[in-house]
């Protein structure tokens, strides 16, 4: 989570936001954003929540809906998945309208 949110994800988030801005400018009536991501790994959990917070800063009056895949010990036994999910849920509560 930390790599995706603070280091590697932070290096990429501006490029991703440029693409989001271009898409938003092409819309006639932008109502909001839908984000689909996983909460178990670093990219969806760390960078995903960073991207959501940055979009919220730039478009505070638009709807933010997230569709999150939650980790399960029946599917994967990666040790850090519960930590990634826990850290991500806090960000989702703060920055999304629907999760």
How many distinct helices?
Answer: 3
CATH homologous superfamily, by name?
A: Tubulin/FtsZ, GTPase domain
Low-confidence stretches: none
Principal-axes shape call: globular
What Rg, in angstroms, do the CA atoms define? Answer: 14 Å
Helical proportion? 55-70%
Class computed from helices, strands and strand pairing: alpha+beta
CATH architecture: 3-Layer(aba) Sandwich
Strand residue percentage = 5-15%
- Major beta sheet, specifics? 2 strands, parallel
Tally of separate domains: 1
Strand order of the largest sheet: 1-2
Q: What is the H/E string?
A: HEHEH
Which helices and strands, and how do they pair?
Blueprint: H1 2-25, E1 32-38, H2 42-58, E2 63-69, H3 81-95
Parallel strand pairs: 1-2
Helix pairs in contact: 1-2, 2-3
Overview of the molecule:
InterPro entries: Beta_tubulin, Tubulin, Tubulin/FtsZ_GTPase_sf, Tubulin_CS, Tubulin_FtsZ_GTPase. The chain is α+β, with helices and mostly antiparallel strands and 99 residues long. The protein contains 3 helices and 2 strands. The protein has helices at residues 2-25, 42-58, 81-95, and strands at 32-38, 63-69. Helix 2 links the parallel strand 1 and strand 2 (63-69). The model has no long low-confidence stretch (mean pLDDT 92).
């Amino acid at each position: 989570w930390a790599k995706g949110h603070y280091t590697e994800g932070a290096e990429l988030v501006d490029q991703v936001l440029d693409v989001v801005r271009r898409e938003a400018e092409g819309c006639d009536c932008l109502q909001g954003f839908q984000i689909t991501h996983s909460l178990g790994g670093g990219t969806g959990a760390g960078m995903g929540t960073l991207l959501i917070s940055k979009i919220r800063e730039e478009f505070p009056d638009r709807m933010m809906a997230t569709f999150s895949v939650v980790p399960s010990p029946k599917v994967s036994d990666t040790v850090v998945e519960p930590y990634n999910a826990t850290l991500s849920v806090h960000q989702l509560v703060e920055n999304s309208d629907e999760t």
